[in-house]
From TrEMBL:
Organism: Ureibacillus aquaedulcis
A Pfam family the protein falls into: Bac_small_YrzI
Top-rank taxon: Bacteria
Classification lineage: Bacteria, Bacillati, Bacillota, Bacilli, Bacillales
Name the record gives this protein: YrzI family small protein
InterPro entries, per the entry: YrzI
Length: 46
């Protein structure tokens, strides 16, 4: 009888986001929300 044992190590590290990347993401979210509002307003007019 053979018993095979596998050891698995998982390392989780917290991802560091640079200030530049965070600002870019925030601006992208604002632009996306503004675009959604424009589309909704355009659809309501018809």
């Amino acid at each position: 009888m053979t018993l095979n044992i596998f050891f698995l190590t998982i390392t989780i590290t917290k991802r560091e986001i640079s200030l530049e990347k965070a600002l870019h993401n925030e601006n992208a979210k604002k632009i996306l929300e503004e675009s959604r509002r424009k589309v909704q307003n355009h659809i309501r007019q018809y």
